Amino acid sequence: MKVTVFGCGRWGSLITWYLDKIGHQVSLYGRASSPHMQRFLAERKNDLLEFPESVRLCTDLECAQGAEVIVISVPSQALQGLMDQLKPLNLKNKTFVLCMKGIEIETGRRLSEVARDNLDPSCAVAVWLGPGHVQEFYAGIPNCMVIDSDDEAVKHRLVNAFSSQLIRFYYGEDLIGNEIGAAAKNVIGIAAGVLDGLKLTTLKGALMSRGTREIARLIEAMGGNPFSAYGLCHLGDYEATVFSRFSHNRRFGEMLVTGEKFDKLAEGYYTADALVRLGARYQVELPICEAVYAVLYRGADVRQTIDGLFSRSLKNELWKETHENL
What we know:
alpha/beta, 8-stranded mixed sheet, 12% strand
């Protein structure tokens, strides 16, 4: 396939390297003013990986014209802006693959909805989600991920074309659930980092069990399959998000407690805001997301918020949920 990747950060560059490695013709787009792109143009590498000569580097949006597949890996809140930039190209009959996890704050739109609202009807939209870190993939450590789309043919074509021994792709069956679950796991990651910062790592078990059930309720209220929360998009991504030293969201939460400055992107910061809004819209209680939101946006005391969150009776909550479903 001829593929153009938009986004030259850690994930965009890894995807470029990976798709080239498995035999696709790949171009990487980045803004000429981007420090990441400037280094790639000068050295063809960053701190994590190096591109072979087969990877084409471009700073002109026109490089999307010749691509069959356009992969996008930019900050979630920047997606609408990128869509606005691409509109003059009048792209048609392209497959867009979104490799990021988030929810548009102001509108509550899932990222596939943002893309769909801005693309010609002839274009297909898919999402690429699931666990893994750039450092591990580049070191040859395999993992499993998910591709989902509301177009079955596109989904199967992408899974077949993108799978390898390094990344095994599963067919997603719930676009709503996979997108919400993937975005929400970053908020759980921040909560996990807060526990690490407070030396309460032992509470991660409760965090994971409650977090999954919480997000399952929201997915169901939005029309998705609640069991998606227990798949690779959410629970299956916890190891990479809740425990890994490479997790930006976990690290962000930990440094929030220790008072250190975190200068990298932590998507969970924005997703916490978006999820609290969705919870209000769909009348779903989201205690973990609300606690993270209170700390990040309302200046709530971290220790008091965590104490209050975990003083809730897990046994009573589970009993109530079980009997409500009988």
